[in-house]
Design a protein that fits this description.
CATH class of the largest domain: Mainly Alpha
Shape: globular
Protein name: Periplasmic chaperone PpiD
GO cellular component, one term: plasma membrane
Radius of gyration: 33 Å
Strand order of the largest sheet: 18-3-22-21
Number of domains: 5
CATH architecture of the largest domain: Orthogonal Bundle
Subcellular location: Cell inner membrane
GO molecular function: peptidyl-prolyl cis-trans isomerase activity
Strand content: 15-25%
Pfam families: Rotamase_2, Rotamase_3, SurA_N_2
Helix content: 40-55%
């Protein structure tokens, strides 16, 4: 259905396989404009499996990924996506290098005839198809690729095409290696029987729980030797793959002065007067609002409560404000009143963007289909089945069913809600040209169109300078951790913590443009105090309190969480002794529960494959013990996640016989093969001895 089609595609970001970005460069010749940030060829962003990665090579890959995003997103790439492009580039290079060593060792090659088949054969590589797809027909143009190859020597993009082909070779060799590994996956009879048992064998049990919370923390003493033993026994839990930092910091707001407030009020009062006098309200709104939103019709209670009260039943042209909200001065004006529906039933025919839907040709084709329907020579449903590029709705004659507000992209919604039942409307969106038939509209009632012109209230430059001077004075007397705390308390500032920062992390939650603070944290020494950083309308001073390099985290950094775990272990020992004592001489679970003054909870249909107890949560150890026990026998105490359990299994059912062993085995092997690719890459990556210095450059 189009509702899914539009919703999913509207925010969809595709970063293709290695080499997709190169396609974008062949099309736009952006390669020639690429400029490295550093001219020093010896600047390295890292090392992968002994191979150094220069800034020039890595940054070129980042730019390729950014260009690919622009191609996929229509030229607009949000700033936060730069970090994603960089991470994608790093993972691409890791994949290429670690797999190259394995494919060479395994003797895996991609021959020239095989490469030629990938480019010009009967089933070209998807990247080649994407590059040489006819934009008008949406079909792969085999002649176009032949012409391109035949004239390659005269083509300025020759070097880029060679790079592209090399990437095709690399991708194919990696896929061969993965196929070789996954081809070795085999599900034994024991494995499929165990899996079937875990999924279909059920248990009915009665359980008693003694929560850890029933033992007071103060009654449990945790020694340093206990903490050290737990750390050494569970050291694998505290191994990290990346360098991390923890900072504490204070934030000093830039406070507007009285003069700033007076100037803002004067500005908004003039704006309100001009808005009252304006005759071209929509143009005035577009020219003056800091925040621009589509001017849609809103029903009763859909508006901001202040505006709902002041404007919903007011005459057209009524102005409300100025008023202050969300750090902005605002003025609202009632532009129009009309009756609109809550939901619309419609069907459509889509001429997709890949078939010229965003060109005049798409509009012309939609008009042609519209005339055919209006003349009675063809039905909408039949044309939708054969002509619509939205195959989901097309198979149903274009039917979209009923949909409400904000379920379609704005242009589509406006056409469907503003038209009348029975109308055929042609509209273009980012997905192509749509021919829409409005079939029905429900709950038609009064709605108003209100334009809100806002002016963000921000401090003046003088106020910023005064706040910056105050922040510098705060830093001036700080020399170490102790003086940072003393200065913070004296200034009555609240210290905030940001932990587990990574070298390539771009943001600190709650702070704007905080990348420079992260970079400082990875260049500083422990207990260093930063200079003053600007973050929007705030100034920030940070103190580096923890350095956690990759590998095993030092005990001192994880001591608090280990202390909690050890205390829980000691509580479990105490509660287990209570259970053992209550079990002595008890003939049933009810008798044990009575001695413990705890309720017996019956549970039906417990499954080993889903170890969750209602109202308690996941308890894998408990379920493992249940399915390894005998029916009718009161268990020994089991230390779980939430407390100590004791139970009795009333009976087991199943497991159900496997109806089709061959089919079941194939499904198990398919899961194994799917997980083997990621598992293979992760294993090779762990052995690659990766040095990541990207944080010094980005």
């Amino acid at each position: 259905m189009l509702m899914n089609f539009l919703r999913e595609r509207a925010g969809f970001i595709i970063i293709g396989f290695i080499g997709l970005a190169i396609i974008a460069f062949i099309l736009s010749d952006v390669f020639n404009a690429s400029r490295p940030f550093l001219q020093d060829e010896n600047s390295k962003v890292g090392e992968i499996a002994g191979q150094s990665i220069s800034y020039k090579d890595f940054n070129g890959r980042v730019e390729q990924n950014m260009e690919a995003m622009k191609q996929q997103m229509g030229g607009n790439v949000p700033p936060q996506m730069a970090g994603y492009a960089q991470e994608q580039a790093w993972n691409q290079m890791i994949q290429e290098i670690v797999f190259k060593k394995q494919t060479e060792r395994a003797g895996i090659e991609v021959s020239d005839p095989e490469l030629n088949d990938m480019v010009m054969g009967n089933n070209p590589d998807p990247q080649v198809k994407r590059l040489f797809t006819n934009q008008q027909t949406g079909e792969f143009d085999r002649q176009a690729i032949r012409n391109f190859i035949n004239n390659l020597d005269q083509n300025p993009a020759k070097n880029q095409w060679i790079d592209f082909e090399n990437n095709l070779r690399t991708n194919r060799s990696i896929q061969k290696y993965i196929n070789m590994v996954s081809g070795a996956m085999y599900a034994t009879t024991l494995e499929i029987n165990q899996l079937n048992t875990s999924n279909t064998k059920l248990a009915n049990a009665r359980v008693v729980l003694l929560p850890y919370s029933t033992v007071a923390d103060a009654s449990v003493k945790v020694e340093q030797s206990d903490i050290e033993k737990y750390y050494n026994d569970n050291k694998y839990k505290y191994k990290q793959k990346q360098n991390q930092r923890t900072i504490e910091y204070v934030v000093m707001d830039v406070v507007p002065s009285k003069e700033d407030t007076a100037a803002a009020l004067k500005d908004i009062d003039k704006l309100a007067a001009d808005f009252r006098a304006a005759t071209q309200d929509s143009l005035f709104y577009m020219a003056n609002a800091d925040t621009k939103m589509p001017l849609s019709y809103m029903k009763k209670t859909q508006l901001d409560p202040k505006l709902d009260t002041a404007l919903f039943n007011a005459p057209i042209g009524t102005v409300y404000g100025p008023y202050f909200e969300n750090n902005a001065y605002k003025v609202a004006k009632l532009l129009s009143v009309k009756n609109v529906p809550d939901s619309v039933k419609a069907r459509h025919i889509l001429i997709g963007s890949q078939k010229g839907g965003l060109t005049p040709t798409g509009l012309a084709e939609a008009d042609s289909l519209k005339k055919l329907i209006q003349s009675g020579k063809a039905s909408f449903a039949d044309l939708a089945k054969t002509k619509s590029d939205d195959t989901g709705s097309g198979s149903k004659g274009g039917d979209l069913g009923y949909f409400g507000r904000n379920m379609m992209v704005p242009q589509f919604e406006q056409a469907a809600f503003n038209g009348k039942p029975g109308e055929l409307v042609v509209v273009q969106t980012q997905f192509g040209t749509h021919l829409i038939e409005i079939q029905d509209q429900k709950n038609v009632s009064k709605a108003v169109q209100v334009a809100v012109v806002d002016r963000t209230f921000s401090p003046s430059q003088n106020s910023r300078q005064a706040a910056f001077a105050k922040a510098n004075n705060f830093v001036a007397g700080i020399k170490d951790s102790k003086s940072f705390t003393e200065a913070t308390e004296k200034a009555k500032l609240a210290k905030r913590i940001s932990d587990n920062l990574s070298a390539t992390g771009s943001e600190i939650p709650g702070l704007e443009t905080s990348r420079k603070i992260v970079q400082w944290a990875f260049e500083a020494e422990k207990n260093d105090v930063s200079e003053v950083f600007e973050s929007g309308d705030k100034y920030v001073v940070a103190h580096l309190i923890q350095i956690r390099d990759k590998g095993y985290v030092p005990l001192e950094y994880v001591k608090p969480e280990i202390e909690v775990a050890v205390r829980q272990q000691k509580k479990a020992e105490q509660l287990a002794e209570k259970v053992k004592s209550a079990s002595n001489g008890a003939s049933s679970i009810d008798a044990v529960a009575g001695k413990l003054s705890a309720p017996v909870q019956p549970f039906q249909g417990l499954s080993f494959g889903n170890p969750v107890i209602d109202g308690v949560g996941m308890e894998q150890k408990l379920f493992g013990t249940i399915f390894g026990s005998q029916a009718g026998k009161v268990s020994k105490p089991v230390a779980g996640e939430k407390g100590v359990f004791v139970f009795v299994v009333d009976n087991f059912t199943g497991p159900a016989p496997i109806a089709d062993v061959k089919s079941f085995r194939r499904s198990v092997e398919m899961m194994q093969k799917q997980s083997s690719a990621a598992g293979t890459f992760e294993a090779l990556q762990d052995k690659a001895n990766i040095v990541d210095n990207r944080g010094k450059f980005y």
